[in-house]
Amino acid sequence: MAETGIVRYLPTPSDRMGLLWTLLTIKDGVILELGPSGTTHYSMESISEFGIPMRGNLYCTHIDEDNIIMGDTARFEEAIIELDGERHPDCMFLMGSSLTSVIATDINGICRVVENDVSAKLIPFDQGGFVGDYSYGLQLALTSITKALAEKTQEVKPRTFNILGAGMDSYRMKSDVKEVCRLMEEAFGWTAHEIIPCESTLDSFRHAGSAAVNIVIRDEALPAAKILEERCETPYVTGMPYGYQGTLKWLEQVAASIGESVSPKLIADIQEKSMDLRRIKMWSRMNPNQKLKFAVVGNYHLAKGLSQFFEGELGMTPTIKLCSHSLKTVNEPDETIVYCEDETIKIQQLESLEDTFIAADGISLHVAKENNYKLRVSYPSPGFTPIANHLPLCGEYGTDFVVEEIYNYLRMLRG
Asked: Is 154 part of any domain?
């Protein structure tokens, strides 16, 4: 396929989209965007796909040619004061759009102009989609809000934890969060304090320091965790549990951080399931001419976790391991997982797959041939909106589901 400047499917969402997806999950947050109302309306179309509820907390001033040519921001300043008077929010997130970023509108300066005229705390975001992609937007939102709101506390609630990095841009995130909470309860008897950002409020950020430990499930949340460690002396654990042995390793990592032992019963249950994977490895030995191959496309934590499970625990052969976003926010990225900026090359890679177990987004699955086994594990997901909150991809139960799909893949190969 010849290289073309035309995007055939969907481009990687910008940092502006990552900001919106994150800020809109904060239940009592109010967002005001300076920009054309059409772009705000367009961004709302993707929000429903992720299952983010619309609470009437996203506002747009709109701008016209006079605002652009003259650099007039009076409408934005008036809107800030008006929203403060009508909604009485504790905090207001102020965003520039791509257009206002091009003409260098100073969102931070506007905040300084009006901050004494409002009671709400103003948190500005002036990137407008030109600094990075959605992964950076998530990191920026979590870091900025934690820095602005997190309070140093003298009281730590024993046996509680926060989950940091639970962004709704991850497929079935609420299901994964429930699985992490279940593992923490069954392994240690610990309960969740705050889940940030997908089930958060402004108080979630203010009182995050009351938890005994932070579980950082994505690298995008690592700067926020470091702020809480410095300000509130809250230790943190990084990583997401994928696979049976991966889940046990993750539990041992948490255990070392909190100074407790993992429930022996939970260890035994997971080890028993891990032993059953021998049947899959036996299939590979009995069919040496037909390798079990996998491809994965998704957010970095998902691509890394599933790849380690497929390769390390099942002995499958990797074909492609693609990250859906740049690796700018990833701490020490795995060099075998790449971000492909050229859509043409990505399409060629997907079209080349044969008899492969593909765990990917809806578009990647659409591009791949029908003689592959396809499992949807990431966004974008055109034509399908996940509703269930009890179908994780991580942890013990998530691995149960993935293993079931692997057995279906084996049946497909048998013909």
From this structure: no
Assess contact for 114 and 80: CB atoms under 8 A: yes
Distance CA 21, CA 32 (A): 14
Looking at the fold, whether 261 and 205 belong to one and the same domain comes out as yes
Lowest-pLDDT choice from 120-134, 155-169, 176-190: 120-134
Q: For 72-96, how does the pLDDT look when each residue is reduced to its tens digit (9 = 90+)?
A: 678 888 999 999 999 999 999 998 7
**Is residue 143 included in any domain, yes or no?**
no
Q: How many domains does the chain have?
A: 3
Please name which of 366, 357, 352, 331 lies closest in space to residue 413, comparing C-alpha atoms: 357
Question: DSSP code of 353?
Answer: -
The domain containing residue 303 runs over which residues? 275-414
253 and 179: one domain? yes
Output the pTM of the full model.
0.93
Q: Is the peptide bond before 158 cis (omega within 30 degrees of 0)?
A: no
Who contacts 324 (Cβ-Cβ below 8 Å, separation ≥6)? 12, 297, 298, 299, 303, 339, 361, 378, 379
Tens digit of each residue's pLDDT (9 = 90 or more) over 335-393: 999 999 999 999 999 999 999 999 999 999 999 999 999 999 999 988 888 889 999 99
- Which CATH number characterizes residue 77's domain? 3.40.50.1980
**Cis before residue 197, ω within 30 degrees of 0?**
yes
Name which of 69-83, 99-113, 227-241, 359-373 the model is least confident about. Answer: 99-113
**Three-state DSSP class for residue 389:** coil
